[in-house]
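From the shared-data thread, chain only:
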Amino acid sequence: MSVRELVVLGTASQVPTRHRNHNGYLLRWDGEGILFDPGEGTQRQMLRAGVAAHDLNRICVTHFHGDHSLGLAGVIQRINLDKVPHEVTAHYPRSGQRFFDRLRYATAYRETVEIVEVPVAADGVIAATGGYTLQARKLSHPVESYGYRLAEPDGRRMLPDRLTAHGIKGPDVGRLQRDGVLDGVSLDDVSETRLGQRFAFVMDTRLCDGVYALAEGCDLLVIESTFLDEDERLAVDHGHLTAGQAARVARDAGVRHLVLTHFSQRYSEPEEFERQARAAGFEGELTVAHDLLRVPVPKRR
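Structure, as tokens:
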């Protein structure tokens, strides 16, 4: 049975706290695992969350600030120590190649697994599989940063009442799906578009075109909300979003489930992030993330 869920490994901005680890997020998508922004301590958080190195197929780094990337060294070495039986692809800003190299080879170890480096240098599709396409979009932060968007291809949903009206049943349904037409009846006559699921991961950034493009029509949006609205000036100065800004993006983009994360250590009451997000007009499902949380991707529309 396929599983599509987000496993939150860490939610702290800049520095870990007693209750929040540095960033780390695993997206389980059917048989694949995509690890986003492994900050310091991610390897231990994976253990606590029941995530194995064998579960990882891709690693996506938004940018090379430490709270988003210092865990790379341990994660990559663990992949090799456990002799993961498949290659693992790594995406990250090309401008940070020197940082990736330093982290990948931070200490001596035996390489047993192929790590395929696919750095990102511009907006666009960076991977395409039978089950999804992965896109990157540039964000606005003091260092080069990219967000990621995973999109499942649209499909078709057969409509039983229309099939019955046209007298189509049994093996003929499969023939119609394969050939697109059967005895003058087209696939469009008895089906409708089933939107593929959409997921986006937006970390350190000010409001910019890339944020909106990533969020558009998402079933699940994971987005930073480092600051509360009263500290918007700080957010702009440091290249971050507030809870209200993130929620308005989600509202305007038609997001179904919004996950707020990447919280500054200055705040001790997470419920205030939810209150401000609701005050900004977001009415969909809303989660203020905490470490080791699991969030299922909403069922198809």
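The chain has a mean pLDDT of 96.
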